[in-house]
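[Q] Does anyone have a clean structure-token version of this?
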Amino acid sequence: FAQFGSDLDKSTRALIDRGERMTELLKQPQYQPMVVEEQAVVLYAGTNGYLDDLPVSAVSKFEKGLLKFVKATYPEIPKAIREEKLISKDTDAALKKAIKEFKDTFAAADEVGA
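[A] Here you go.
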């Protein structure tokens, strides 16, 4: 297997790495299911590459922080997803802004060891 792993091209390696992060996002504590709009927010972040540069070990912390940030700062995002049952163009733009804003603070906090 070590030989197989070293022979992967860059794009295949990136897909496998993203899959590892998506697997982390999909983990939920037993008997504590996540509501759909929260799932949509974190899966959006994962499928759109916002986690690609994070270590797998940081995914859970990022997920929890992102949800807390979105609920506190952009409560209209989960509300829109819940009510519209989709991610509209406006919600998409708001999600991109919110995730980027959170990611900047997450990276800064990580640099100072918070």
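[Q] Thanks! Anything notable?
[A] The first helix runs from residue 2 to 6.
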